[in-house]
Amino acid sequence: MGDTTVIKVQSKHSPVGAMGQKYLASGKNVAMRLWENEQPDEAKPAVARDYETVGYVISGRAELHLEGQMVLLETGDSWVVPKGASHTYKILDAFTAVEATYPPASQHGRDETATSTGSAQ
Question: Cβ distance 114 to 78 under 8 Å?
Answer without folding.
Answer: no
